[in-house]
């Protein structure tokens, strides 16, 4: 006689997005693959959405391991997490990540599922379907927005940990972000949502196809000066670090017109800009 089984197993859904900001509570229990960097806040977003596992981009790892800080955070709350190498897939482009991405790092929970460095992203997400559900809620982590006064006689510099925090009133201002310099989904129209005067990003290790510099050329076409700071000089996801620690790695033509050149400290360049104004 054939044995009857009343036990069923629902295969977790796969949620593939260009930015972890698109993952919400509606994706609870799914496996998330996001083109975002693997920084602390991105791990926090995955945890608060309640997904079963997450794969992000390692953004070159960078200063203080900021590009993979999500791995330890997710592990602390019982979530499988891994990153693909920035040299294997374009940051901000989940389709490329699924097509070419190669795992560079995995936390202990992901490793127990057989996810190791060198594995294809698609194989890693399949393995994550066996991950346990995550019920723990993390302590709050916020992306911040603040204004930094560099000169008493000049308007403050806008500092935002994520480019998504920019506001319409930031038009014409200097904006320093903690975001990677890649295009979200490869779309030039998403280089920056507001016509600021100057924008700074993290180069995320530059990576394959120079994806970490993707915003510079589209902003140049709009006459917006833009630079990236080296991922080893500033923590990705941290605008204060970009401003006070960042060393310029790449600059578009408009930025070079302001005197912003690779090798210079971003803070020094911005003070000189304000003095000339």
Write the layout of secondary structure elements.
Blueprint: E1 14-17, E2 31-37, H1 40-49, E3 53-57, H2 69-76, E4 80-84, H3 94-100, E5 103-106, H4 108-112, H5 121-128, E6 145-148, E7 157-160, E8 174-180, E9 198-202, H6 216-221, E10 225-229, H7 239-245, E11 248-251, H8 253-257, H9 266-276
Helix pairs in contact: 1-2
Give a structural overview:
- This protein has 277 residues and is α/β, with parallel strands linked by helices.
- The protein folds into two domains: 14-128, no CATH class; 145-276, no CATH class.
- It is 24% helix and 19% strand.
- It has helices spanning 40-49, 69-76, 94-100, 108-112, 121-128, 216-221, 239-245, 253-257, 266-276, and strands at residues 14-17, 31-37, 53-57, 80-84, 103-106, 145-148, 157-160, 174-180, 198-202, 225-229, 248-251.
- It has a six-stranded mixed beta sheet with strand order 6-7-8-9-10-11. Strands 1-2-3-4-5 form a five-stranded mixed beta sheet, sandwiched between helices.
- Helix 1 (40-49) packs parallel to helix 2.
- The radius of gyration is 20 Å and the shape is elongated.
- Mean pLDDT is 95; it is low at 1-9.
Question: What about the largest sheet?
Answer: 6 strands, mixed
**Quaternary assembly:** single chain
- The portion of residues assigned to helices is 10-25%
In total, the number of strands is 11
Helix count, DSSP H or I runs of 4 or more residues:
9
Distance between the termini: 87 Å
Low-confidence segments, given as residue ranges, are: 1-9
Number of domains: 2
Proportion of strand residues: 15-25%
Could you say which overall geometry the principal axes of the C-alpha atoms support?
A: elongated
SSE string, helices as H and strands as E: EEHEHEHEHHEEEEHEHEHH
> How are strands sequenced across the largest beta sheet?
6-7-8-9-10-11
Class of secondary structure makeup: alpha/beta
Task: Specify Rg, calculated over alpha carbons.
Answer: 20 Å
Average pLDDT across residues? Answer: 95
């Amino acid at each position: 006689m054939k044995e009857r089984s009343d036990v069923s197993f629902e295969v977790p859904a796969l949620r593939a997005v260009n930015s972890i900001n698109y993952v919400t509570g509606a994706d609870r229990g799914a496996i998330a693959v996001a083109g975002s960097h693997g920084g602390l806040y991105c791990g926090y977003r995955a945890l608060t959405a309640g997904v079963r596992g997450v794969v992000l981009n390692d953004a070159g790892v960078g200063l203080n391991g900021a590009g993979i800080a999500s791995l330890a955070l997710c592990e602390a709350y019982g979530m499988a997490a891994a990153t693909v190498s920035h040299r294997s897939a374009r940051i901000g482009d989940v389709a490329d990540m699924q097509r070419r991405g190669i795992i560079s790092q995995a936390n202990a929970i992901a490793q127990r599922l057989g996810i190791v460095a060198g594995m294809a992203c698609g194989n890693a997400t399949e393995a994550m379907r066996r991950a346990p559900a995550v019920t723990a809620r993390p302590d709050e982590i916020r992306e911040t927005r603040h204004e930094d006064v560099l000169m008493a006689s000049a308007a403050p510099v806008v500092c935002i940990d994520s480019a998504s925090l920019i506001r319409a009133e930031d038009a014409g201002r200097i904006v320093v972000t903690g975001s990677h310099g890649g295009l979200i989904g490869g779309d030039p129209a998403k280089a920056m949502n507001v016509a600021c005067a100057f924008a700074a990003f993290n180069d995320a290790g530059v990576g394959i196809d120079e994806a970490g510099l993707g915003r510079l050329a589209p902003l140049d076409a709009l006459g917006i000066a833009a630079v990236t700071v080296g991922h080893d000089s500033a923590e990705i996801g941290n605008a204060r670090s970009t401003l006070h620690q960042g060393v310029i790695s790449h600059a578009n033509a408009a930025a070079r017109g302001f005197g912003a050149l690779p090798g210079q400290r971003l803070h020094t360049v911005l003070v000189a800009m304000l003095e000339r104004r």
